[in-house]
Amino acid sequence: MRIDLNDLRRYAVARSLFAPTTLKGALGKMAFVQADPIRAPARAQDLTLRHRVKRYRAGDLERRYTALGIAEDFFVNYGFVTAELQALMHPRSTVARWSPTRKAQAQALLEFVRERGSVHPREVDAHFAHGSVKNYWGGSSSATTHLLDGMHYRGLLRVARREGGIRLYSAHEHAAAPLTAAVRRVRIDQLVDVIVRIYAPLPATSLSGLISRLRYAVPQWRQELKSAVLRARQRLAHARIDDVDWYWPPDEEPASLLLQSSVRFLAPFDPVVWDRRRFEILWKWAYRFEAYTPALKRKLGYYALPLLWRDQIIGWGNFAVSNGALRHEIGYVASSPPRERSFNRELDAELSRMHEFLAIASTGNATTDIARPLR
Fold it and tell me: Is residue 141 part of a domain?
C-alpha cells in the first residue's frame, strides 16, 4: 500500500493518542514517560498522561507511584519506566569508576539507607556532610546529593517516593548475571522496540539519534548501538517519502488508523511532538521549547503547549494558574484560528478538560488569541 506524508501525520497522532485507559494500562502501553520538573501549569509527565488516562488529575502519577510497580530512571531521557523496561537496562556495569574514597562513601551511604529503609537527601547530608561538588550547571550542590544521584543511576538505589517533589531513596539491587553476545543483542533490540513503540513513525536520522541516546540507558553496551541501528532498519517496516526514509513497527499499517476530531494541548515532551525534526517535516513549522530562552527572545512563550486540531498542529497555548484561576493565551501559526464551529466547540471542551485536570473551577476566563505567522 502506497502511503504519503498525510498518512504518516495521521498515523503519528492516532497511534500515540490511544483511547484513554487506566494509569497502569497507559504506562504499560508506553513503558516510558519523560519527566520534567517545571510546572506550567503542570509537570510534563502529568500533561502527557492526561490525554491517555481516564479522569487523570495533575499529580496522580506521583501520588500513586508506590502502587504502580514503576521506577524513576534514565531511558533516552529521565522519566518513569516500567519494571520490565528497567530490567532490560540493568545492571549498568561500566559506568565511570569511582575513586577509592568515593567508593567507600557510597558503601557507607548504602548501609545507612538499608538501615533507615528510605531516606531524604537532607537526612543523608546531615548525617555525612561530605562537602560540595560542582554540578553539571556550574553551580555547587551537596556532595551527598550528587552521590545519591550517582548511586541511583548505577542501580544501587531507587526512588521510593517523592515528598514535595523531592526524591526519597531506598536501597535496591538488580539481578546480575553474565550475558552472552546473543542475549545482549536481544535486549538492545527490545530497547529499540520500546523507542519505536513510543515515537514512531520516525525519520531515519531520528531513529539513529534515539538509538544513540540509549548510551544513557545502557552505557555498558554503548559500543554495540551502531549495529543495533542496522538491525532496526532491517526488521522495521519502512517507506521512502520525499527522499526521507521512515520507520515504524512491522505489525502496524500507517493508513489504517482512524482519527478523532478533537483539540489537544500537548506537553513539550509529548511523544507526538518530541522529535523536532519530525515535527517540522509533518507540520511545516518549527516548535521550540523556550523555558530556558531569555524572555525577550521567546517567540512562543515560556512553556508553550503545541495545539493539536485533528491531525494538524496549528498553534500553541501558554497556561498559568494565578489566584486560583487558570489563565491562558493561545497563538496560531496562520493569520487566524480555524473558522469551523466544531473547532470552537472542541477548544472549549479541551479547556474544560484542562480545568478538571488541574482541579480548578472554570470561571469562563477569556482567551487571548495571537495571530503570529511562523511559516
Answer: yes
